[in-house]
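Hypothesis: this fold can be encoded by more than one sequence.
Test: take the structure tokens below, design a sequence, compare later.
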């Protein structure tokens, strides 16, 4: 008989209601087992929340859970441990602003022991020269700046005011020299710098990252960075359609919606990227009508039209353009994926 692994044993204990972190910690070090704890019923709420963090699913946590003192204490107890190494990166994305300031010494020690990523430590501590000193690569700087900026939506560049001019210049210079990394934190950079970097983004993935960043930014950032956004929207191509759609929903910008329609009209097949990026009810009416009007000659749009009850059955529409051909449609369970109400 094979011996059970510590992670499996810890998972089974947690499924039976165990909440002692010393007992369940091995499960948090394996994202597959942590995911079980995050999704299985009957697991202690704090253990379930830690499972979501350990399995890189921080978005499963509600705002109330993220603000829970009990969860904050549980995460703090794991700083510097192997389990904490998996948890702190996820926690940095949803933790209350400045949560790590009171644990700065422990978090910095964890970085030095390779049990916490530098960007996560800086994000958790909050913007200051001490946390900025942990950031040596453009990638870490971009990830920390992104999180700092998200915590002050009404003033996206407030993080700069917390740094001395020397540290501020150092971080901005590193991002200026690495546009690919800077793309991920563009909305939270000074307007002139963001505009110049947006103009330098030549790779499709870089532009996708920039559009995705703006989709998660505040209306203030959208207004301040009109020039950078204009550049990104004008250069949008079908590969970035999902990120462009999320930006259009978040910002309501006419230019973004027009770009979505332009790309959709050129290739109706990409309607799938649109309806999986945003709820149907949040799409601009012109985008909805463009998708529905293409149902007669495109099977993806026909399937969406059927899911929206805009036609009685998808098959007749598709057969108009695929006579005598075998038609392969998503299974009925997949149609629900298009009903994003």
């Amino acid at each position: 008989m094979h011996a059970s692994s510590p992670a499996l044993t810890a998972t089974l204990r947690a499924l039976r209601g165990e909440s002692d972190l010393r007992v369940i910690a091995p499960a948090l070090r394996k994202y597959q087992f942590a995911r079980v704890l995050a999704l299985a019923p009957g697991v202690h709420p704090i253990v379930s929340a830690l499972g979501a963090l350990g399995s890189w699913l921080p978005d499963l946590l509600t705002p109330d859970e993220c603000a829970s003192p009990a969860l904050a204490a549980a995460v703090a107890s794991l700083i510097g441990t192997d389990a904490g190494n998996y948890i702190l990166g996820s926690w940095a994305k949803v933790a209350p602003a400045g949560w790590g300031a009171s644990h700065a010494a422990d978090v910095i020690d964890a970085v030095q022991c390779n049990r916490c990523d530098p960007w996560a430590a800086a994000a958790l501590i909050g913007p200051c020269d001490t946390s900025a000193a942990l950031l040596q690569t453009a990638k870490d700087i971009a990830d920390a700046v992104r999180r700092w900026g998200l915590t002050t939506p009404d003033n996206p560049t407030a993080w700069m005011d917390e740094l001395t001019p020397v540290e501020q210049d150092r971080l901005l210079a590193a991002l200026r020299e690495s546009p690919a990394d800077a793309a991920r934190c563009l909305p939270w950079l000074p307007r002139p710098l963001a505009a110049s970097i947006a103009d330098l983004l030549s790779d499709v993935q870089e532009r996708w990252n920039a559009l995705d960043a703006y989709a998660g930014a505040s209306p203030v950032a959208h207004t301040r960075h009109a020039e950078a956004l204009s550049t990104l929207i004008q250069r949008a191509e079908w590969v970035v359609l999902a990120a462009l759609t999320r930006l259009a929903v978040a910002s309501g910008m006419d230019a973004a919606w027009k770009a979505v329609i332009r790309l959709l009209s050129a290739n109706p097949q990409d309607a799938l990227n649109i309806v999986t990026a945003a709820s149907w009810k949040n799409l601009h009416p012109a985008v909805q009508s463009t998708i529905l009007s293409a149902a007669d000659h495109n099977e993806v749009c026909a399937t969406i039209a059927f899911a929206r009850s805009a036609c009685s059955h998808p098959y007749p529409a598709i057969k108009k353009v695929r006579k005598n051909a075998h038609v392969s449609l998503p299974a009925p369970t997949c149609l629900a994926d298009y009903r994003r109400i």
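Residues 186 and 194 are 6 Å apart (CA to CA). Confidence is low (pLDDT under 50) at residues 320-341.
Hypothesis status: open.
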